[in-house]
Amino acid sequence: MDIESVDYSTKIPNNVNLVEDRQVLRALESWHPGYIDWWMDMGPEGFQQALVYLRTAVSVDPKGWAKFDYVKMPEYRWGILLAPKEEGRKIPFGHHFGEPAWQDVPGEYRAMLRRLVVIQGDTEPASVEQQRHLGKTAPSLYDLRNVFQVNVEEGRHLWAMVYILQKYFGRDGREEAGELLQRRSGSADKPRMLGAFNEATPDWLSFYMFTFFTDRDGKMQLESLAQSGFDPLSRTCRFMLTEEAHHMFVGETGVGRTIQRTCEAMRAAGIEDPHDIDRIRNLGVIDLPTIQKKLNLHYSLSLDLFGSEVSTNAANAFNASLKGRFQETKIDDDHRLEHATYPVLKLVNGEIKRVDEPALTAVNMRLRDDYTDDCQRGLDRWNKVIGKTGVNFKLELPHVGFHRQIGEFKDVKVSPAGVLLDDSAWSRAIGKWLPSKDDGEFIVSLMKPVSEPGQYADWISPPRLGIDNKPGDFEYVKIAA
Ligand SMILES: [Fe+2]
Ligand SMILES: [Fe+2]
Question: How many CA atoms within 13 Å lie on the side-chain side of 468?
Fold first, then answer.
């Protein structure tokens, strides 16, 4: 079988030769009905019968891996797709640096590896659950199609992790695969594993912020798992990253189009001051200070996903050659980090200081720094959108100590500018920095669905290009199918 093209003859499309891997095929087939039940129960509400113009992977070749067609979401062909095997791949970091990559789970790291796979796997269905009500308020058919594309691909990412669990972890892998369908985002008794994945996504600006900031955390996690010495995990993450790129595109352009519309409406109404919030809101667009607050919230929640700045778990996973650094193979060092240090922001005697820590225990911090750089590049592009309209406003990432629940800053209050505050100063200012209930209600009040082809809600600009180069009035979703 051609390793790069996908076999659609089995119930579960795949490029891992499931036809000859009977045991795993059976395990996946018996997991499938539970997955469909979960999708019907927790997937996009009200649109399960709609025909959606979706891309489906037909190969894993980076040039031309997908085809587009109308499909009802429950009939989407969720499959198991791994990037092609690199012959002679060597482990690129950690204790086992330079050894041939493992094709099987190394016994001594079994528990650690399973945990990494389960944590990654748990985030995938969580975001589908968080986004399930958005269809009812989509600002256009184009946006509606995009959220559904993200949703079916997050569903496929769950399949990707479940394949690893079922093929390589025997009975406990099957149990974990079952558990992944049991937990629910935001549930009191069986929540998803990570904080940001239990938050609500009540409106479309939240969705774009989520796909920009939280899917970007996903990208960084996948990048570091793509370095793994355990080759099947590396290959599955490498292919997931091709899909993830679209999720971040949806987030970046979604926020960008919101900003664009706000600035244009301000100009048309002759409003110079971006802080003239009531007048701007009266135009039916989202003022930039509120967008800044949403950004502060989603960035800080996503930073928590990187874990503690200094972490022995992270050091162990690196040492074990299971989870590397961002673009590990491009880093010019010994890839073992036995003697290296890395600067970490810490609280020292009531002050925020940069302290050199052993690089090994600081791998989370390093990944988070790479994430911050990546976010900043996106903000620079948003600021260009603002700049071009002549509006005088600049979006900024808040300090990494701002509004944190995990790590070095969880017990202190830090302003977006990085100043330590006492509780009363914090409570006085918090309304300026994080979205209030009123802000949320205002945003929700704008969320009126638009379902005419080529039409867009008033608070957001149309995209510059269609999906798959389709014309502006293309019917991306046939709702009354
Ligand atoms: Fe994902
Ligand atoms: Fe994603």
Answer: 18
H helices then E strands: how many in the chain?
13, 7
Angle between helical axes of 110-130 and 141-168 (0-180°, round to 10) = 160
For residue 29, how far is its CA from the centre of ligand 2 (angstroms)? 24
Ligand 1 centroid distance, CA of 66 (Å): 17
Ligand that comes closest to the CA of residue 123: 1
Task: Choose among 200, 205, 203, 202: nearest CA to 259.
Answer: 205
**Under a CB-based contact definition with an 8 Å cutoff, are residues 131 and 151 in contact?**
yes
Q: pLDDT digits over 331-382, tens only?
A: 999 999 999 999 999 999 989 999 999 999 999 999 999 999 999 999 999 9
Quote the ligand 1 centre to 87 CA distance (angstroms): 26
Q: Which ligand lies nearest the alpha carbon of 125?
A: 1
pLDDT, tens only, 446-469: 999 999 999 999 999 999 999 999
End-to-end CA distance of the chain: 37
What is the whole-number distance in angstroms between the Cα of residue 163 and the centre of ligand 2? 18
Q: What ligand has the least distance to the C-alpha of 154?
A: 1
> Would you say residue 288 has pLDDT above 50?
yes
d(CA 475, CA 25): 37
Inter-residue contact 165 to 173 (CB < 8 Å): yes
Nearest alpha carbon to residue 406 among 436, 440, 441, 365: 365
What is the identity of the amino acid at 396? E
**98 C-alpha to center of ligand 2: Å?**
31
Radius of gyration of the chain (CA): 23
Q: From the CA of 152, how far away is ligand 1's center (Å)?
A: 10
Residue type, 133: H
Residues 306 and 140: their CA atoms lie apart, in Å, by 34
For residue 120, what are the contacts with CB-CB under 8 A and spacing of at least 6? 161, 221, 222, 225
- Work out the angle at residue 94's Cα, subtended by the Cα atoms of residues 241 and 82, and round it to the nearest 5 degrees: 25
Which two three-digit tokens encode residue 104? Answer: 């099987």
Question: Residue 245: nearest ligand to its CA?
Answer: 2
Tell me the backbone φ, ψ of residue 405, rounded to 5 degrees.
Answer: -110, -10
